Amino acid sequence: MQANKVQLSYASNPQLSTSELWNQIKSGLEAQFPLRTLHWRSGTRTSIRTIQTLEVDLVPFEGVKGEGVSQIPLTLLDKPFFNVFIVTCEDNEAYKSTVKKQIKEWHSTVSTRKNQEWLIILVSRPDSRPTSGLLKMRGTVLDRIKADFNIDKRDRCSQLTLQEDMSSPRAWADIMSKVKEGVTSAFDSAVTQREDEIKRLEAQRQMPGWNFCTFFVLKESLAISFEGMNLLEDALIQYEELEASFAAVLNDNTSIWFGKFVDPSPKDDSLPLLSVTKKPYRDLILANTISVFDFRIYILAREAILLGKMGVPDKILRKVNYFLSILGGRLRSFQNELPEYFIESWTYSSALSAIESCQEWKSKDAESSQVTKFSAARGEILELARLQLDRLGVYLKYLPDNPPFSFSRLEDPNIGFSSGAITNKDLVKCLADANYFYNLYIKLSNQSIDSYVKAGRRKFALKLHGSLAALDMHRERLASALQVYTSLPAHYATHQWASLESYMRLQGINHSNEAHDDDGRAFVASAMVFLGSWVSDSRVELLEDVADLDTFIATLIRKVFETSESLAEDLTVQDNPVLETMIIESSPKCTINRDGYNIEVDIFNKLPCALNMGSLVLTLSGHESITLKFKSNACEVEPGHSKVELFCSTPLPGHYLPHSVEMRIGKLLLTQQLKPKESSKLSVLIRSKTRLRMLTLPVDANAFSIWVSQPKDVNIGKGAQLLVDVRTGRNTIQNARLRLSSSDISIDTSVGQTDASPLSFSKDGVELANVEKDLRLTFLLPYQNPQGRTSVKVVIDAEFTNEDEPTLTRTIKLVKTVTISQPIAVNVRDFFRGQSLFSSFTLSSVAAEHIRISSVDLQPYDETEESVKISRIAGGSESSVVISPAHPATFIFHVQRLREVKDSLQVSIRYRKLQEEIDHLLEKRPEQDSLETASRPGPLSFKNLVSEFKDRPPWLDLYIATGELLLPGDKAPLHSNENLGVLSDLGWRTFSIPVDLPQIDLLASTSIHVAENPFSTVPRAIGRKGNLFAGQPFTAVVSVNVSCYWSGREDAANRPYRMRFEVDEMIRDWLISGQKRGEFCAKDGTTHSVAITLMALRHGEIPMPKVNVMLLSSGEEPSQRSSTPLTLECYQVRGAEKLTILPRVGKTSFVLNVGPGSFSDTSFPEG
Amino acid sequence: MAPSLQVLGVGYISPQNQPILIRYFSGKKKDGLKFHYIAHTSLDVFEERKCYLGLLYAMDDFAVYGYITPLRVKIVLTIALTDNLVRDADVTMIFRALHMAYYHALANPFLRLDAPYDAVVDHTALLVQSKTQWKGFRRRVDEVARACGVNVPPDGEET
């Protein structure tokens, strides 16, 4: 009972069917199919079903069978849903006489049929329209047909206008919409009727005489109808319901309607599973002789066909997989009725045939997600087929009865088999040929792996790889098996799937004994990882293969270390948990009587046996990528925790972080990173477990040490130098070589300045030979190109050997940051006053430093020369001054020129930083406890003090003010008197800067003085100034004196200069009358005077107006004119002097004439 | 409970895809590999389906069901594949019981003793650390299996 198409019957009146028009119309009608977009609104379903396309069969009306008489329920599609009658009719007369009768005849047949719709189509010619105008009154033929045949509201008559192209959808539009409507409504009523029948039959289930097969056929007819209507989902639902009721019927155990559960026919095991034609299923069902086995296959195959049409082949494969698994299991209970290996063969063949069938259904342009799903399902079903081979292999003893081959349950061999044999060609061959079996096994596994990989199922693929490796192992192809087993653990390790990882490793280890491909490197590496995971979790699962785990492990360890001895090269194993090192002290101690440090580490040996460790090297990393290596001697490490002492020969104090540990056992190098690895979840655990700590290596005062610093005396005029300070410490140095380099400056080690003899300078560095112990050597090295840097990095590489340990060459590499700038900024201002010069030096500290200035001196560069007389007039108190950025200090010097000055002057500043003082005080402070001295953390803690300097803590103020030092935490202060004594041997730093004697070409001194009387320019004598009142005019004399005393030019004094003076107007204070501005010609030493009249505008202390002087021309010849313009400085003599202006005391009288002709007199002051 | 389902094995997998507990009730030690494989391969299907409760896949004689807790711990349940209809409700019920077993076991405050201080957020870090020592959890899982009618050998006596 194949699904067929919806039928549509057609008929026509003879007039039409005999005309040549008929073929045209018929082909036009055929061209309208398949129908598109039908909407089926079903009363029993909630949603509207939309049929996208519907294939339709056109059948002649005469060919349609009458009402069925068959017992077997036909599908709904066996009868047409729709009948069309096409007529032509020229006019009403013809209609009346013949056509109506013809239609009536057809209509009477059609209208009696159940669940069928009909339509009468009247073919009309387009040219017949105008003529029909006459007949309009009586109605057209169409109207008449409508009147005659439309019995209910629905219009079942339509008109087809003849066109040139009869296949055009436009011509048929109205008709087709009526056809669609009719088809769905006919289908709906048919479905409703059939569903009612099914329900009725289902309700009778418990009644005697009910037959499942009858029910099945009835319900299936509905399913096939749905399929014909292209309603695939609905069809599938029918089958699923059938499946469910079939299962229910089976559970009732009243399977009287079926034959046996399984009735194997000879080729049953190898027939294609999804074919519905391989057996006469329908006949078997109708005859009640179908076996349950066949029945279920039939339902599955029908469903698969529907799913295939729906374009979801992956669902088919999943369904088939599930089905084969379940039915295979069921078949096992009927094993004795089946030939030997029947189930395996059937499952195997069915799985492969299902894939083949699905390959046909698989649409080519499937989406990628669809492909992925299909590949996954394909992989699964291939694996199912592969499992059958597993089972077969175990039966046939081709494979061992062990995992991973024994995953599936096996049949009880005691149960017999029926006669007969399997027929799958592949498997039949396998029975006889083991190699054929193996190849088939591999091929199938690989196919499955391919599918899984395509589907992105990596883990499934890994599993199959594992089974292939197991097969190789079984076939003693050890090399390839080993290769797989060594690559697999890494895949499982990514998720810490320790059990599977160790299992794979164990497989590899177990057999690498037999297959030594190299000197055992791979074996050792693999075994170490295995041991690593074993020690971290001794109850690793999946090691059940090993009978006595402890002995196995012990043997393995022995073998690993034996093999590792004989390795050709070192084998590095990283971060293996077998041995774990932990630093237990946070500060290593200085080695007693030797340069270097000792540290104790804890080694945790997790293996159950002792290990002979060749060496242990702990690397610490400091700043500027300096590394220190601590080494141990060879020792035996017992199981559990043990302590090992490490020694580092480099005496380099500072802060370090643990970096790595390297443990050597034979050729095996176990490394452990102590640095935290970022971005890994696991590292969070590791880091927090080991508690990475900073290590502080203390300063060993008696160890060899090198310091680089700025020299104490810096003279900017001379070249820049670095001071290198080498202390030999407790040992006599046999020889040492220092190399200094810097990326910032170029240091010249070939020319050094020193007082010490055992030094030799060369381009390669500085060499020392046979230097006594406890000696301090200092030398200066010049450098170039600081390029404005305030500090430079100097890298020092030193190698030295002691007399006591001539074989041990110690190397020190350290990076020092040396400040090469001065902490003091100097600002100079010069004031010229006649033949005196006042130089003001303002000293301020840069960067938050407090600096004590001892003295500031200004002297000629060459001190013997007595060309100037310099005396300090301000800032020169006896005691020192402390300056800070907020508190600068000013020093003023009075300079008088005695004769021509040739050399420049030099400022020397003696100073020291307060920080140095405090460092020194702390260093020299009398200690009560000698132990405290040893444990004092060295200069580093002073840094902390310095950082406090910025905040200017109270103790600093106290120290600056009184010299008493009371540091936080100290009980008693260091007294100032003692401090002074201690500091006296600290010394001062000096900082010298050359300064030129300043020069000025023209110095103009201006003055305004009150004249004796208005007619004289003689200044009023002091004391005789008399009273000056506000508003009283008086005469003043403006005089400008020009001097070339401070000019550096030789001919300056002889030349005339055109100058201009201008009295500053001070409009609030003075009213000025007279020559406010004037030009004059000046020479060295001349004075220009002008009288002006001044009037004070207010009373009070009023400064004299200021006089500005500017140079107009120097009087030089243009050719002689020097490039630098002449400098002119102008100052007012006694500029700070003020005049006392008295208020005008007086009274004002107003005389008022009250008589006629009144006038008012102006007021006049008195006095 | 749902005695109709024959539970073969249970697997708990952490959000980072590390195994927390793999338990199987066949009593045969050599079945371990099979159940580890089942749990491990299920991850592929979990990945395909994102969040899904139901049949992950069936193979030959067993069916594998998956469940993801709100904190993304995956639970894998292996049951014997029989002809009987497997109702989702039954499977869900077992999963709920397994989920509760997990939470009760996780509530043990002593689990935290071994754990690093800064791993408070990641609850699975605790589990991975003490996976085999975690007897309480195994006992609870076994109880669930017993309630499903599985004959679970007492702990430590499997042969």
From TrEMBL, chain A:
Residues of the DUF7077 domain: 702-805
Domain TRAPPC10/Trs130 C-terminal: 994-1141
GO cellular component, one term: cytosol
Main localization of the protein described in the UniProt heading: Golgi
Transport found in the keyword field: yes
Source domain of life: Eukaryota
One of the GO BP terms on file: intra-Golgi vesicle-mediated transport
Keyword Transport belongs to the record: yes
Subcellular location: Golgi apparatus
UniProt keyword terms in alphabetical order: Golgi apparatus, Transport
Domain TRAPPC10/Trs130 N-terminal: from-to ranges: 18-315
Protein known as: Trafficking protein particle complex subunit 10
Source organism (scientific name): Schizopora paradoxa
From TrEMBL, chain B:
GO process annotations (BP): endoplasmic reticulum to Golgi vesicle-mediated transport
Organism per entry: Schizopora paradoxa
Record CDD domains: TRAPPC2L
Cellular component per GO, a single term: cytoplasm
Family annotation (Gene3D superfamilies): 3.30.450.70
The protein's name in its UniProt record: Trafficking protein particle complex subunit 2-like protein
The family this protein is said to belong to: Belongs to the TRAPP small subunits family. Sedlin subfamily.
Superkingdom assignment: Eukaryota
InterPro entries membership: Longin-like_dom_sf, Sedlin, TRAPPC2L
